[in-house]
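Would you be willing to look carefully at the protein I have copied below?

:::
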Amino acid sequence: MMTASFLVVHGRVQKAEGVIHVVAERFTDLSAQLGRLKEDPKAPAPRVRHRTSGRLQRSRDFH
């Protein structure tokens, strides 16, 4: 999973004292489907909270 480009994270979100934690319990690697998603005109547009090019963005590595 360390080299995956597109993941679904299954788990819980916890909030304590103003800090939000994502407690991941299981991951599903969808990297093989990423290319098809980028080309599919029926695919939902990514939700964007800030200005981007509108294309799918690479994730950040927090290690």
